Amino acid sequence: MNMDNNKLAGIHLLESTIGIELEVLTNEYQELPLDDGTVNSSHKIVFQITEEEPDISSIGVLFALALMSFTYAAPRGYSFNDFIPDEEYNLGYFVEGLHFERGFLSHESDYVSGRCLKTDITYEPGGKVTISTRNRGRGADRWIVHLQGKKHIQVIK
C-alpha cells in the first residue's frame, strides 16, 4: 500500500500525541438563547499537559484537536453548498489555520470544506492549551477524552 506523505505525516503526528497525559484546569460552557428560538453556545476548556517535556507535543496536540474539530463538524446554513461529505482533513488545512502570535502557537478555523468548525486552539509554552468553540455544543469534551486515548462511550444504567 502506497500512502501519500501528507497523510503519513498526519498519522505520525497522531501516533505521537494520542494518549498524552493532561489535567483539565477549567471547563466553561454557556448557552445564549436568541429571540428567534435558536441558541448560541460557547465552550472553553483549558488544560495543562503533564508530560515531562510538554512543548515537544505542541504541533501534534494542535493537529489532533484541529482534526477532531473537523471530523465532528457539520455544515451550517450556506456552507452546505461547499460541503464535501467524504473530505479528509489534511496538513494543508492544518497549516492554513496555524500561526504564531504574542509568543503562542495557535490554530484558528471557521469554515473548512463546508464544515462549521468555529474553533480556536492556543498552545502556550510549558504545555497550557486553551480550546474555544462557538456553536459546537459540548463537543470539545469528547476531544479531550480522545486526546488522552480514552473511549468516550459510557455505560447506560
Task: Spell out the blueprint of helices and strands.
Blueprint: H1 5-15, E1 22-33, E2 39-49, H2 58-71, H3 91-97, E3 98-101, E4 104-112, E5 115-124, E6 128-134, H4 139-147
Instruction: Give, in spatial order, the strands making up the sheet with the most strands.
Output: 1-2-6-5-4-3
Structural class: alpha+beta
**Which whole number gives the mean pLDDT?**
88
Radius of gyration, whole Å: 16 Å
- The portion of residues assigned to helices is 25-40%
Summarize this entry quickly.
The protein has 157 residues and is of the alpha+beta class. It has helices spanning 5-15, 58-71, 91-97, 139-147; strands at residues 22-33, 39-49, 98-101, 104-112, 115-124, 128-134. Strand 1 (22-33) and strand 2 form a beta hairpin.
Task: Provide an overview of this structure.
- Helices cover about 25% and strands about 35% of the residues.
- It is α+β, with helices and mostly antiparallel strands.
- The protein has one domain (about 5-145).
- The model has no long low-confidence stretch (mean pLDDT about 90).
